[in-house]
Amino acid sequence: MQLIACPWCGPREEVEFHYGGQAHVPYPDSPAELSDEEWAHYVFFRDNPKGRFAERWNHSAGCRRWFNAIRDTATYRFERVYRLDDPKPGVTELARSREEGTAP
Amino acid sequence: MTSPFRTSTGGRIDRATTVEFTFDGQTLRGHPGDTLASALLANGRHQIATSIKLGRPRGIAAAWAEDPGGLVQIEEPFPEPMLLATTVELHEGLAAHGLPGQGRLADVPDSARYDAVHHHVDVLVVGAGPAGLAAALTAARAGARVALVDEQSEAGGSLLSGTERLDDAPALQWVAAAVAELAGLPEVLHLQRTTAFGSYDDGFVLALERRTDHLGAAAPKHVSRQRVWRIRARSIVVATGAHERPVVFADNDRPGIMLAGAARTFLHRYGVLPGREAVVFTTNDSAYDAALDLHRAGVHVQAVVDARPEGSPRRAECERAGIRVLSGAVVTGTRGAERITHALVAPFADGEVGAGSAITCDLLLVSGGWNPAVHLFSQARGRLRYDAALGAFLPGEELDGLAVAGSAAGVPDLAGCLTDGQRVARATLAGPPAADDRLPTAPESAVPTPPLVLWRVPDTSGADGSTSFVDLQRDATVADIARAIGAGLRSIEHVKRYTTIGTAHDQGKTSGVLTSGITAELLAIPVQDTGTTTFRPPYTPVAFAALAGRDRGRLFDPERVTALHEWHVAAGAVFEDVGQWKRPRHYPRPGEDMEAAVLRECAAARTGVGILDGSTLGKIDVQGPDAAVLLDRLYTNLMSSLKVGSVRYGVMCGVDGMVIDDGTVLRLAEDRFLVLTTTGGAAKVLDWMEEWVQTEWPDLRVHCTSVTEQWCTFPVVGPRSRDVVGAVFPQVDVSAEAFPFMTWRDTTLDGVPVRLARISFSGELAFEVYVNPWYAVAVWQRLLDAGRPYGITPYGTETMHVLRAEKGYPIIGQDTDGTVTPHDLGMAWAVSKKKPDFVGKRSFARPANQDPLRKHLVGLLPVDRQTVLPEGSQIVEFRTDGRLPPPPVPMLGHVTSSYRSAELARPFALALVKGGRERIGETVHVPVDGTLVPVEVTGPVLVDPEGARRDG
Amino acid sequence: MAELLRTSPLDAWTDALERLPDTVRIAVEPYVAMVDVRLGTVGAAASAALGVDLPTAPGTWVPAGTGRAVWLGPDEWLLSSTTETPEELEARVRAAVLPLGGSATDVSAQRIGLRLTGARVRDVLAKGCSIDLHPRVFGRGSSAQTTLGQAGVVLLALFDAADDVVVLVRSSFAGYLADWLLDAALEFTTTPTHDR
Ligand SMILES: [Zn+2]
How is the cofactor bound (chain B) (predicted)? Predict the structure, then answer.
């Protein structure tokens, strides 16, 4: 039973959370102007990397807030959680937070 | 009567008390403190059963969970299969028999209770042997929150099995003092009979506590029999000790052959002599303790057979005691039937076995070295390293938050284990250790002679390893490993699965490393390269009942009920599960079956008045200046044009354009809506709204709040509904002109706010009554009283379904399955053409959604006017020649809803059919019980297509 | 004006709850008005309008007049009042927060409160709650939205000793949770009368 650190409530058991897929995939500004293929990419296509992945999570059994996380898909380790209005952390920032032990 | 193999003194048993038990139908006696195994051995009984495949006699080969042989079926106090005689604590009235590999589940309900407890600590110590106790003391003395769990009935670990001394006194005195000290510290949880069976992410360990098993019939019924501890620890200290490893030789499976350390345990802990005449076969020094201790206890030790050419420095000690020591010798085989009678001993040098001789014995003790119990470390994804000197796998890296101490880390001696436990615990502390963190003094131990790593003795019996057992429980031999390798298998994981070694109840505690060693030997590669199979939880078997805990029976899945539940029960409702809700399905009168009740309830709603508890409908309060903007973006139709006081039906789609929910929307104010969802969609739709608001449109000034349980909802349905509602709420003008269809009005009843809405899910004139559930029973009763003159009839979900299906109203999730668009449902009218965009709109233009052969929602009328088509039935069509096409017969679609209609006086169905709207009027076929039932395709609306009743 | 009869989802549990020992007392809290408040920014204006400083630390609650203000999220609170009707509370709070861009929704009947008192309360809750309820972690003024058994709950610590806790549960789950609590408390009864 993994712990996931809600940015507000702190570490809670993973069963309190719902997964929301890849983060930073915004709803297109003008769907009508997209080709069928472009629209299909928005609807159906997501990255599936081995390693660090920016994901959306929802603390569904707690504060019900959505947040983002950088998680390693090979080890399941959460390297960072951040609020929706925070920018996506860069690689150097992640490395620093790891060294400082501030990664959750 | 004393048991023939019980010593006269010693052991941890209560000799003053005798308990009677039965094994294989024979009544025997033992003492509290015995295990079933020790009590059987005390009675001279070694054989437990015969083996599963070969039918060979098998007995007790170890003293605890690593025993591969002694499987028993418990009959009393409660039938339970596949337990080990070595781990079952003896109690009065225990009845058991030996098992050849397979047990029998109880055929009576288990009346025992099981539960789980969450526990949080700074330090979890697994194992209350010397290292674990030292670690727990160090952490607890420093003020940490500590849990100490140990699988035995009492603390002490290996100290229970020997004669070690600490601080110049029996070591168990120190154990008792340590336990007492821990008991005095408030932040310490110390659990015996508790097996940590799995270690998981983030310091999470599951442990099974056997709370009342040892009490037998005296177990209190209101206390859980077993408990799963869900322990979350900042640091874990694994001090789980080591398992002795046998050496494989021909016919090494006979009763009377056991691990040397186990014999010491039986002697010192249980006061049992496992035999009269013993041969000790070893590759290391540890078995000399067993030989000497048994000798002192009166066992005739025929010989110590040491495979090492130089033997041991303890040889002299043995010879002083008159014990013959044969160094550079091995046991090559045994004789005997139900019990060993001879050990065959031969010289052994450079891997070659010389000519042997037979030594008589009724006990053969074997020691091939020690395997650290690294399960929890390995489960936590710790990498193991092979130590060639020990012939064992040891923790090969440091893990965050989990450290291994004592003999589990390969520490060989008592003093070393104590200091190791303390060292590891100190590393977990945030601050300095306590000033009084003292360890007891252990005597210096002799420098041991290095062990010989010997996995197996070459088979000189002519059997080519087919009687050299690696996994006794699986009847798997050296020959089987050779066959696996001959079949081309190289990975130890494949060898395991080919031979089944390590897949029995003991999960390879004695056989796993042997298999790695023998496989490496046969492949002529280093053991490190073979590695071990993956260690997976549970470490020892855990009953499903324990894992289920409290979540069974009524508590298996929460039952959600409405405020009217007691009324429904009293009214004789038959309930249906809708998600977690219990909803009345119908209210049968005496003598009625469901069909009769539903026909009656339907008729009442269509001709008189019916009433439904619709409180489970999802309800969401949407507030804020941008509330209408949000709803316009999420519904396919326009909500911003809805007038305050009015109601509109709406459909919601995913971005893929498929319908995810539907329902009505009440505009309460310019900036406030009440959104109604399906019962099943309540949580989903709120989450959907929150997701869009939080993640995509945070600048929208809107908030969504669940009010599902803030309002009870009672649809009052039928031509007389106006009379009933008008009578109960006289302040409201319920006339069609003043209160038209798809509007709502607020009123009060005795000062309590009530909302009325002209919404119809039945096609009839209908009013939905909304009230705070505090007053639900009272308001419901008022409606019933007012409806009595009109024969008001409570109806359930089945009637609700029939009424809506007759009107062609789909149930999202029943008539749809995530692949259905509003257009497929014939609801193009509910899709706005004005709005530039809404969720799902762009997908409607995808080519797949333009296909004229998409499945449409249509009605089906069985031509025979008799058959109720089973829901889920496939739909097929004949060729022009009146016959079915050859298999595979193309499927046109399937029946989604099917009922008998009182109104139509015939059965009908809704179905999703390819190009269905173009087929209206055609006849297709539905296979039912092996015959093809002809059905006519119709539009989905079968009752009052003009909506005159509804609008009335 | 005749009063409309009020019923509680736990009326049928009254006897069973009364039989519990002093070490685990469970009392159904009286009905009170509760409102779900949403507000983007809290500050002096909000405090002045509402008459309470809404707590901004996650996992906390504060007394608010005769009721409580419970943190539910970074922009969400549960505000209760024992002296106002649900309609009065919603109207007052809505009027106070609307100008600040907030909203307020009457949720008085959404949840029911169970007050657990006694030395075994923490032990009972630990059987179904995965968060740490040690008094050092979950002391007076703490709150948590989490799961107890299989029901979503809001826990409020009333005192430091973790022997006085309010459990707010969705009304439809109240019967399940009461059954669950009775089952979990059973081992602390000396003369067990409740069994499944
Ligand atoms: Zn949270």
Answer: Binds 1 NAD(+) per subunit.
User: Which other chains touch chain C, taking contact as 3+ CB pairs less than 8 Å apart?
Assistant: A, B
Domain count, chain B: 6
Across-strand partners of B705?
B621
**What is the span of the domain harbouring residue B225?**
111-243+370-446
Q: Judge if B91 and B223 occupy the same domain.
A: no
> By the CB < 8 Å criterion, does B143 face chain C?
no
Residues with Cβ within 8 Å of residue B101, at least 6 apart in sequence: B49, B51, B52, B53, B71, B473, B504
Say if residue C194's pLDDT is above 50. no
- Report pLDDT for A104: 42
Can you give the residue range of the structural domain that contains A54?
A: 3-100
Residue B690 belongs to some domain of the structure:
yes
Q: Which of B530, B133, B204 is nearest to B376 (CA)?
A: B204
Residue C10: C-alpha distances to residues B532, B859, B930, C113, C174 (Å) = 56, 44, 51, 10, 7
**Ordered DSSP codes for B658-692:** -EEEEEEEEEEETTEEEEEE-TTTHHHHHHHHHHI
Tell me: the pLDDT tens digits for B179-231? 999 999 999 999 999 999 999 999 999 999 999 999 998 999 999 999 999 99
Residues B230, B217 within the same domain: yes
Do residues B134 and B233 both lie within one domain? yes
Q: Provide the ipTM.
A: 0.96
Residue with tokens 């006081």, as numbered in its chain: B645
- Give yes or no for residue B579 having a pLDDT over 80: yes
- Rg of chain C over Cα atoms, rounded to whole angstroms, equals 17
B123 within a domain of the structure (yes/no): yes
Domain boundary among B395, B420, B446: B446
Q: What is the pLDDT of residue A100?
A: 52
Residues B646 and B745 in one domain: no
* Closest residue of chain C to A9, computed from CA coordinates: C58
Contact A63 C73 (CB under 8 A): yes
Report if residue B340 sits inside a domain. no
Q: Specify whether B473 is located in the same domain as B441.
A: no
| B529 touching A (Cβ < 8 Å) | no
Instruction: Name the pTM for this structure.
Output: 0.95
Number of domains in chain A: 1
From A18, A30, A66, residue closest to B695, measured CB to CB: A66
Q: Are residues B652 and B520 in the same domain?
A: no
CATH number for the domain harbouring residue B754: 3.30.1360.120
Query: Within 13 Å and on the Cβ side, how many CA atoms surround B24?
Result: 13
CB distance A43–B656 less than 8 Å?
yes
* Residues 56-75 in C contacting B (C-alpha not used; CB under 8 Å): none
State how far the Cα of C175 lies from the Cα of B580, in Å rounded to an integer.
13
Alpha carbon distances (Å) from B346 to B118, B276, B314, B337? 56, 22, 21, 21
Report CB contact under 8 Å: B705, C36. yes
CB contact under 8 A, B706 and C106: no
Which chain B residue is nearest to residue C177, measuring alpha carbons?
B558
Mean pLDDT of all residues in C49-53: 93
pLDDT in tens, B502-527: 999 889 999 999 999 999 999 999 99
Report CB contact under 8 Å: C59, A12.
no
Residues B121 and B210 placed together within one structural domain of the fold: yes
Sign of CA dihedral C190, C193, C194, C196: positive
Token readout for B85 is 């005689």
| Residues composing chain C | 196
Q: Closest CB to B690: pick one of A2, A39, A64.
A: A64
Domains of chain C listed by start with CATH number: 11-30+109-189 (3.30.1360.120), 32-107 (3.30.70.1520)
Q: Tokens in use for C37? A: 């408040």
CATH number at residue A40: 3.30.2270.10
What is the per-residue pLDDT for C195?
43
Say how many Å lie between the CA of residue A15 and the centre of ligand 1. Answer: 12
